[in-house]
Amino acid sequence: xxxxxxxxxxxxxxxxxxxxxxxxxxxxxxxxxxxxxxxxxxxxxxxxxxxxxxxxxxxxxxxxxxxxxxxxxxxxxxxxxxxxxxxxxxxxxxxxxxxxxxxxxxxxxxxxxxxxxxxxxxxxxxxxxxxxxxxxxxxxxxxxxxxxxxxxxxxxxxxxxxxxxxxxxxxxx
Length: 173
Hints:
This protein is α+β, with helices and mostly antiparallel strands. The chain has one domain. The chain is built from one helix and eight strands. The chain has one helix spanning 24-77; strands at 81-84, 90-97, 100-110, 113-116, 121-123, 126-134, 137-146, 158-167. A hairpin with a 5-residue loop joins strand 1 (81-84) and strand 2 (90-97).
């Protein structure tokens, strides 16, 4: 006859011998908790990507408007006289060269674009452009919007307001 050997399991804590491993309920609970953690991480990832996209759109508007306002301010600083249009959405900068007055630059809001005298578009998505004068100081106010009025995604509407003051070099204060 064959004798069967008994194996003894180590006893922990002085109690009875225990089975090593996890029960099915423990495995299900661990899987459920893991799924919740993964779902939370994925949700945070999606939210951060949406924020990144919105920030990028706002930054693009800001850069577009800044570039246009800086160009207009540059021409105002180098001009002798500034004439603001009756509707305050256009401006003409003149300079006297050898006794003759020449137009250095003109800017006008056409539709949703700021256009110079050559037809070059300085900025798009412009909803408001206003020039105002106080002596030699010319105030430039520009509002740019992106995707405004879209009902599909109202949370992604971006609006940027840019204000600047330029001083015409030869105008009296």
